[in-house]
Structures are given as C-alpha cells and as structure tokens.
Amino acid sequence: MAGTAGSEPEHERSLQRRPLGDLEPARSRHMWTRSAVATTADLVVTGEWDGTVTAREADSLEPRWTVTHPDHAVGIATLENDETAGSAGAVAVAGRGESGAIAVYDAETGEQRWRYDTAADVGEAVKDTVFYLPYVVALETDGDQLYAAARRYERDGEHRQWHSTVYAFDPDGSVRWTYETDASPIAIDLDDAGERLAVGYNRCMGDHDNGLVVLRTATGDLEWTWDPGTEGVRRVGDVSFDEDSIAVSSHGDKRGYLLGPGGAERWAVDLAVETELDGETLYAYPNHVYANNDRVAFITGNTYALESRETNGRHPNEHRIATFDADGGLLWDEQVRGFVHGLATDGDTLVTPCAQNFRVRDPETHAVRWFDLESGPTGVEPLEGVATAAAVDGETIAAIEEPVAYHDEGNRRGEYALCVGSLE
Predict the structure, then answer these.
(1) How far apart are CA 325 and CA 344, in angstroms?
(2) Structural domain range at position 191
(3) What is the DSSP letter of 334?
(4) What is the C-alpha to C-alpha distance for residues 396 and 373, in angstroms, rounded to an integer?
(5) Closest to 57 in 3D by CA, of 37, 75, 69, 40
(6) Residue 398 included in any domain
(7) Closest CA relative to residue 36, chosen from 77, 74, 79
(8) Does any domain span residue 37?
(9) Along the 424 residues of the chain, how does pLDDT read in single tens digits?
C-alpha cells in the first residue's frame, strides 16, 4: 500500500483566504450542504447559504461580480467558453429553497442568461423547514449542455414521499427532456462522450425501485437500470463513469461495485458492511465514488448502529478512502478522519473537504486533504473550522471553510471563508 491508515502527508501548504461573511456555526453533527465552490483556469466561484454568488479572478481572488441567487446557492458548475477551452463562459448555480432555482450567469458580467424553477415540476414545500424545500442536488455539464437533478421530500404521518425530476437543458435554457420518478436522486454523472447520463437514487420508497438508471442524453430514453437488490429504501450513494464502466457506491449493502454495459457486475468489494463490535452491529455508508483510468476510489462516512442511531462504537472502515484496480484489488487506503461532504476531482487528483468526526469531536480532523488516485495522499491543509465544499482544476484547489461549535464545548472554531491555493 502507498500509505498507512491514519497517516498524514509530511508537507503542509498554506491557502489564501477570503472571508465570506457570517454563518451560523455547524454543531457536533455535520449539517446539510450550505455552500458551494467551483474553479477554472481563470475563475473561482462561490455560492453561499444566503444566496450570494461571487465570481473571483483566479490569480488575485479579487471579485469580478456578485449576484444574489433566488435560493440558497448550494451547487455550482461552469460551462466552458467554446472559443477558449478551460475558461468559463457561464456559471450554473443550483438552489435549495422555495423555487428550487437553476440559473445560469454570464461568466464575465454576472448577467443572468436564464432561470428555471424546478418547484414547477417537483412541487412546492409543504412545511417551512430546510428538509422540505425543493433542492437541486446535482449539476453536470459537458461544457455546453447542462444536466440537473432536483427533488422534494414530504411526510404526512407515517407516509413519506419523494418527488424528483432529472433535466437536460440546451444552452439557451430550453428543456430538451425530463425524467421523473418518485425516488430521491443523489448523484449524476456523464460519460466521456457525453452520450449517457447515470443517475443514482439514494432512497426508493415508491413505484421507482432502481438505485441506478442510465439515460441517453440525446433523448432522455432509459437505456438500462441496476439495483443492489437489498431490502429497505436505501440504494445508491454515488455514481462515476469510467469509459464503458460505472462505479457505484451502495447504501443498500455498504459495498462498492464496478458495472459494465447493461449493468453487468464486473466486481464488488466490501466497504463498511455490517460488522459486530462489542455487542453492536455497526455499519457506515459509502457516500462517494470516483473512477478514472481503470481505478476506483470509494469514501465512507459516519458509523451507525443497526439497532440505534446512537453508538459509542466506530466501524473500522468509517471515514476511509480506499482505491481499487481494474480487477477490484486494493491499491491503497487511508483515513480521511472526518465526514466528507463532497468529493472534488480532476484527472487523478481527488480532494476531500473533511468536516468534524462527531463521535470523537477532534478539531484536528478539520482539513482539506488531497490524494493521487494511483499512489495515495499528497497534501493536507488543516483548518480551524470545518471544510464543507471543494473544487480542483489543474493545479488550483479551492475549499469552503465553515465555523463549528461542538455542543459540549460551545467554543466557535474557524470562520466562513474561501480558501484557495496551488497543488504545486
């Protein structure tokens, strides 16, 4: 193996910082997605919980423009300028709020090019709490076309229900097609050719009963489906294309899969499956996956107990990144030490924004960590607060730090800030 579990790279780097204003501190348990960041060769864009979206020059971090998105700005994707590959021509922002708005802004001026309110399809919130708001959970682009997944949750007594829509948008904002289900999408990914879109569904509690669907991007037609075949509503945590293969992290059985065309299972590995420890049955969800060049990395999250949501135990594979080769053989594994909100990738580089490990409440877990897909850990940037979003483009890395206050301490750690630096 290239590393030993729990080890950190010997070198540390200092990132430039830009304050983002005030934000209620996170508590011992990780909070929902409240921030977003994206970066290109010439631009760093942040999305904030109050809806503020700011585009900054990548070299100086001086603001180019600032706009207010209609909802909480919780996701960002950049659409390339056709004339200058790698530079942003437009910025797409995903919202969580009353409208569930997707808006695209001109990368030079911030002028809004178009807006689409997903609440028109998934419905309006039936309760004034964050979990019931329409939520655009994912954006994907091939540089020109934009794809999105939106969902809304509601509950009436014991009856729980999801409403969701997957979208394909043309450059002018017109909807080319939609794919609607009564399940909860959590991730989408495009193949390299831009011909297929994989959609991972986290919870299936209605008529839709497949954790993964693959759609033709030209038409939205269903090409094939796959499911871990487990009992209960939990199904898929994340999906990632690698040529004609799709890597899947399964919330159903806490395993990782590599699928071929049509959903044929090429291999499967145990990640954080149910494990007996000190009289408890413990497990952790594989929340993220990334596949590239015949290698697949999976990242697991928090420990849970089968009989209770509370436990003093910790699954031996919680908060772990593990990378496998084309045959499913383990290449290396490391501890990421805290909850990873989202995974940022570019080529063979993986960046993990690590938040708190709420069971041990150790502030030394707060950091941005980055890895090479083939060889393992390559860098770490400790933070006072928690890292909740990250982006990487070439040698540029960006992350969002949010303040945190552990419930049994009360001390506020860190600040709401953008952190940017170089991997070189």
Answers:
(1) 20
(2) 88-393
(3) E
(4) 17
(5) 40
(6) no
(7) 74
(8) no
(9) 233 444 555 445 578 999 999 999 988 877 789 999 999 999 999 999 999 999 999 999 999 999 999 999 999 999 986 555 566 799 999 999 999 999 999 999 999 999 999 999 999 999 999 999 999 999 999 988 999 999 999 998 889 999 999 999 999 999 999 999 999 999 999 999 999 999 999 999 999 999 999 999 999 999 999 999 999 999 999 999 999 999 999 999 999 999 999 999 999 999 999 999 999 999 999 999 999 999 999 999 999 999 887 888 999 999 999 999 999 999 999 999 999 999 999 999 999 999 877 778 888 889 999 999 999 999 999 999 999 999 999 999 999 999 999 988 878 999 999 999 998 7
397 CB-near residues (< 8 Å, 6+ apart)? 15, 39, 344, 351, 368, 370, 390, 391, 420, 421, 422, 423
Total number of domains in the chain: 1
- CATH code at position 378: 2.130.10.10
Joined together, the tokens standing for residue 350 give: 């993986």
| C-alpha torsion angle, residues 417, 422, 83, 169 (rounded to 10) | -50
Using CA atoms, how far apart are residues 164 and 256, in angstroms rounded to an integer?
25
Q: How far apart are CA 37 and CA 20, in angstroms?
A: 12
Strands annotated E in 170-294 = 175-181, 184-190, 196-203, 212-216, 222-226, 236-242, 245-250, 255-259, 265-270, 275-277, 280-292
Instruction: Say what the pTM is.
Output: 0.95
DSSP class of 348: T
Q: Is 270 part of a structural domain of the chain?
A: yes
